[in-house]
């Protein structure tokens, strides 16, 4: 059993293949955290908690004269609020005549087979035949009337524990929830580093590693989406932790909206990690009997460094979160029209681009922005989801038929959550936008955000998207979101509920995606949020791949895809070869290098093939042949970061290894070149140390032990921005 309860010691024991997670009911009913780390046989770890009389750390009333029991210093599973614990709380409520304290005590528990049930939001599911167990512990505070049901889903073989919380108002009056964390994780020590991923539009998910110092370090988003600026994923690790050595803990929030992650080092050298909905601008009114479901947080532990942690997340997200049939199906190689034409196209131009794409060996042509309404720039027509027959010279159905007749599949770009002020939809329904009354709206990209907290708005989007997909033969949809939310005010909610808008928006988005995507299970959906602005686990539940960044520069992409790889599998990262000089940076890199970098994801093109030479097209054909031949190795093989682009200025290298360790692909890109340069070597990983490998194009064979301990020499003839791929096969 992965979950059990020791009644003698009042201890809950959760076990995965390699980890143990223990918590204990205190003598006063509080749920205390004992341990999360490498698997241990012990079931009574009460000795780890040393009672002490701490000055200015209050004692709960039930402790009487016992000054050694204080919630201000004890490790908790779901912390109290206004009850003597001054650290960041798990939950904050306002009830009765304005009281805000909450002190939940264990009132019962349940263990049931299967994955946790997360109402209205994405969550991990168990595969057919896969064992999973769920523990639900009920914390009750009879004074406030609020209960918290803590959910722990244990995926034993995957080494994952999925946590969440359901908050229920059992009182007789309405009350207001102002903060709820999906998971609180208390550490008895704090001599750790915190790794998180930050950036901006065009440079998302940059790798950041800092020591945990006194106070609170917080990352998050208040932009309505998980954002370009921060990703809802963080790692706590030992200071000596590397890719291959040391303990580390991963915290990943399965949520697409405003989030908060905190790491707090307290006065006693302990650390608390919180993950949940961002309380900034958030409140949720709960009537008597009403419940609030918090998002799921996916936790894992590794005792073998960051690479093993990444492998755990890659596997669980690829297999237990993504539910598209394309989770297992081979994805088509596409060509997208955006950087090829932007808004400057007609039907004839699109067909000429598609015709040349066929000659390159592409499988799928995607018509990006500009095909609908009066959409000749980004100032108009969002919300009017009917084809522009005048611009295309035909209907979408006819265009799709012509492209299919060439032997290509057909895809389109949509941005369903937005509306332009210059649109028929806005003229009919100005109240459908998120905007404050009596104030001119804040604009982003000259567009407003539709109020997805309203069911009528959601139903309009569902009908509009289904109408397009039902009418024309479409195999791919790029679902974009190109602005952050500012005025989160809904015309249908009263003043006491406006703090619910941002969360209700996300629930509405999930509802819309359910209704559109479930109706079209054979369509490949790709997520996008101005590139990587909504690259989070919850989106993978609906869309098996996400456009990694609007930045297609191969050198910048080395850092973007490096940071993304810590939590997200290659199969989730859509990456394209684009034209040079690059449209975002002006940099020129070889076509071969652009192909190598784009193969570190779901491969495609973002250029105009009518302007390419015959030699360039032949090189693209060879790239596509290579990618398709080694698709499973690239997208499902174990992923290894061989160098860091933040630490190694000279080169960036990564590697995929098949599950049976018989094949491997090594990719290397030179990022800086010096005259009379030193000979550089790259040590490989993940190979069978007792096996021997041949490297395609090289003479001889080499032991896995040699390749991992000594490495391979990087060819000295490579120039700056040139790259190579080395294919290894077991001899």
From TrEMBL:
Residues 29-287 form the Glycosyl hydrolase family 36 N-terminal domain. GO terms for molecular function: alpha-galactosidase activity. It catalyses: Hydrolysis of terminal, non-reducing alpha-D-galactose residues in alpha-D-galactosides, including galactose oligosaccharides, galactomannans and galactolipids. Its EC number is 3.2.1.22. InterPro entries: Aldolase_TIM (IPR013785), Alpga-gal_N_sf (IPR038417), Alpha-glycosidase_related (IPR050985), GH (IPR017853), Glyco_hydro_27/36_CS (IPR000111), Glyco_hydro_36 (IPR002252), Glyco_hydro_36_C (IPR031705), Glyco_hydro_36_N (IPR031704). Signal peptide: none annotated. It is an enzyme of class 3 (hydrolase). The active site is at residues 480, 550. Residues 652-716 form the Glycosyl hydrolase family 36 C-terminal domain. It comes from the Bacteria. Keywords: Glycosidase, Hydrolase. Belongs to the glycosyl hydrolase. This is Alpha-galactosidase. It comes from Candidatus Lachnoclostridium stercorigallinarum.
């Amino acid at each position: 059993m992965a979950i059990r309860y020791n009644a003698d010691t009042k201890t809950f024991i959760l076990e995965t293949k390699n980890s143990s997670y223990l918590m204990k009911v205190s003598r006063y009913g509080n749920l205390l955290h004992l341990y999360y780390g490498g698997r241990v046989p012990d079931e009574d770890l009460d000795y780890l908690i040393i009672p002490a009389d701490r000055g200015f750390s209050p004692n709960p009333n039930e402790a009487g004269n016992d000054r050694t029991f204080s919630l201000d210093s004890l490790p908790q599973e779901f912390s109290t609020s206004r009850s003597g614990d001054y650290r960041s709380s798990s939950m904050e409520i306002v009830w009765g005549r304005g009281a805000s304290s909450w002190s939940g005590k264990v009132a019962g528990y349940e263990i049931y087979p299967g994955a946790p049930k997360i109402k209205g939001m994405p969550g991990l599911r168990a595969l057919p035949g896969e064992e999973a167990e769920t523990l639900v512990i009920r914390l009750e505070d009879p004074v406030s009337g609020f209960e918290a049901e803590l959910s722990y889903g244990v995926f034993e073989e995957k080494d994952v524990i999925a946590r969440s919380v359901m908050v229920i108002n059992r009182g007789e009056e309405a009350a207001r929830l102002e903060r709820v964390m999906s998971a609180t994780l208390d550490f008895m020590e704090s001599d750790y580093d915190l790794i998180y991923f930050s950036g901006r539009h065009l440079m998302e998910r940059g790798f950041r590693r800092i020591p945990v110092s006194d106070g609170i370090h917080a990352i998050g988003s208040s932009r309505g989406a998980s954002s370009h600026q921060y990703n809802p994923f963080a790692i706590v690790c030992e200071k000596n932790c590397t890719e291959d050595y040391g303990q580390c803990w991963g915290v990943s929030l399965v949520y697409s909206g405003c989030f908060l992650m905190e790491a707090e080092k307290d006065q006693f050298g302990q650390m608390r990690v919180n993950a949940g909905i961002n309380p900034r601008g958030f409140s949720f009114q709960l009537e008597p009997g009403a419940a609030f479901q918090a998002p799921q947080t996916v936790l894992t532990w590794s005792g073998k460094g960051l690479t093993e942690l990444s492998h755990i997340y890659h596997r669980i997200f690829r297999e237990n979160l993504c539910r598209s049939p394309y989770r297992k199906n081979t994805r088509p190689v596409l060509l997208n029209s955006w950087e090829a034409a932007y808004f400057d196209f007609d039907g004839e131009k699109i067909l000429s681009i598609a015709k040349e794409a066929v000659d390159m060996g592409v499988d799928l042509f995607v018509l990006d922005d500009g095909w609908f309404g009066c959409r000749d720039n980004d100032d108009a027509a969002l919300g009017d989801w009917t084809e522009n027959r005048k611009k295309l010279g035909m209907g979408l159905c006819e265009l799709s038929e012509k492209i299919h007749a060439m032997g290509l599949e057909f895809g389109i770009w949509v941005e369903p959550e937005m509306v332009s002020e210059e649109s028929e939809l806005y003229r009919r329904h100005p109240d459908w936008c998120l905007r404050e009354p009596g104030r001119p709206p804040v604009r982003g990209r000259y567009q407003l955000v539709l109020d997805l907290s309203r069911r009528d708005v959601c139903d309009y989007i569902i009908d509009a998207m289904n109408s397009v997909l039902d009418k024309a033969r479409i195999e791919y949809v790029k679902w974009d979101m190109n602005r952050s939310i500012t005025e989160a005010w809904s015309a249908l909610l009263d003043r006491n509920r406006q703090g619910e808008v941002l969360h209700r928006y996300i629930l509405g988005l999930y509802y819309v995606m359910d209704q559109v995507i479930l109706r079209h299970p054979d369509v490949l959906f790709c997520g996008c949020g101005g590139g990587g602005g909504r690259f989070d686990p919850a989106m993978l539940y609906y869309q098996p791949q996400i456009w990694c960044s609007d930045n297609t520069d191969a050198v910048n992409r080395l850092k973007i895809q490096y940071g993304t790889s810590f939590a997200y599998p290659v199969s989730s990262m859509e990456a394209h070869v684009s034209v040079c000089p690059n449209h975002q940076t002006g940099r020129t890199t070889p076509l071969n290098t652009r192909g190598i970098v784009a193969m570190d994801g779901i491969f495609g093109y973002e250029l105009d093939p009518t302007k390419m030479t015959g030699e360039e097209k032949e090189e693209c054909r060879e790239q596509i042949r290579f990618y398709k031949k080694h698709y499973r190795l690239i997208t499902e093989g174990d992923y290894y970061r061989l160098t860091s682009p933040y630490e190694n200025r000279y080169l960036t290298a990564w590697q995929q290894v098949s599950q049976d360790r018989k094949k491997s692909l090594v990719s290397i890109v030179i990022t800086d070149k010096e005259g009379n340069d030193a000979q550089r070597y790259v040590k490989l990983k993940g190979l069978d140390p007792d096996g021997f490998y041949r490297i395609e194009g090289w003479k001889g064979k080499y032991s896995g032990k040699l390749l991992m301990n000594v490495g391979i020499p990087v060819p000295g003839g490579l120039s700056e921005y040139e790259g190579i791929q080395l294919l290894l096969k077991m001899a």
